[in-house]
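Class prep. Sample record?

___
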Amino acid sequence: MKAVRFHGQKDLRYEDIAIPKPGKGQVKLKPSWVGICGTDLHEYLGGPNLCPTTPHPITGEQVPLTFGHEFSGVIEEAGEGVYDYKPGDRVVVQPIIYDGTCGACLEGLINCCYSNGFVGLSGWGGGLSEHVVVPTSTLYHLPDNVSLEVGALVEPLAVGWHAVNVSPYKAGDAVLILGGGPIGLSVIQALKARGAGKIIVSEVSPRRREYAKQFGAHHVLDPAKDDIVAKCRELCEKQGVHVVFDCAGVQAGLDQAVHAVRARGTIVNVAIWEKPCSIHPNDLVFKERRYTGVATYVKGDFQEVIDAISSGKMTPHNMITKKIHLNEVEEKGFKTLINDKDNQVKVLVEVGGGR
């Protein structure tokens, strides 16, 4: 079968590999639609970083690896002992790989597993292939009214959903989101699904500011022109926002966030940083501000996102800005996102297609 495999920095190959067979508790599925993630781009441009270069403690695999961790698919074959899924079922894959035995896993924090990895980054195949085998613990059924295309958006939407779940946000709070890329837009949609009344977004790209407005931001600021701290205080009783979601991961944004959040407010770091940053603890101490990190999602987040889409509380289809084929991933997918990222939100790769 054909697959898109990561061999190293700027070394992505469309090549033939063996078709996998499902074992006990596993299913073989045909990926339908696959999103290209910012993490994939970071690996391509500067990796391997997350992709293991020595055998992964759970999968036993290392580079080269098949990419693709945001995907929907249709089940082709069920392995021994699988009764909840059958051929023809439409599913999305929650790609966290976890050992289930460490302290974090035993507390239900599979996203914090001390040996964790991801389907499509750490082994067990990936969505950018004609077939993939995964354990049933990764699967969620798609309702009939949620398309396979939109199903491929559940993973990034779950990142935003989890960030809001973990944060102290409550109805009526004012929020600042740093960055209007796919994850920033996911946070906007998670907040809108909860009826948020004051969402402020800081984004330098004009096109992404338009997307932020389209998905429900109430105030959209340009950090190159606007004084973000002053604007947040002006819009929020001269105190600042209750919660900041940092989806950008740049020093200038963090500096603004610390002073844009009110006393006893919280800064939630969602971004993956490319290099170390600095923060002055006194800026937190003297206003009793909090700084916390969130990582991907836990088990319930996928189902909550699927339910929100099915009920109409979230309508994310317009996040899809381009569709390509499996043999076009590097030239029309990765290079488009690198060279034209301001005009793109989510590029989907059609593998098996379907609605």
User: Anything to note?
Assistant: The mean pLDDT is 96.
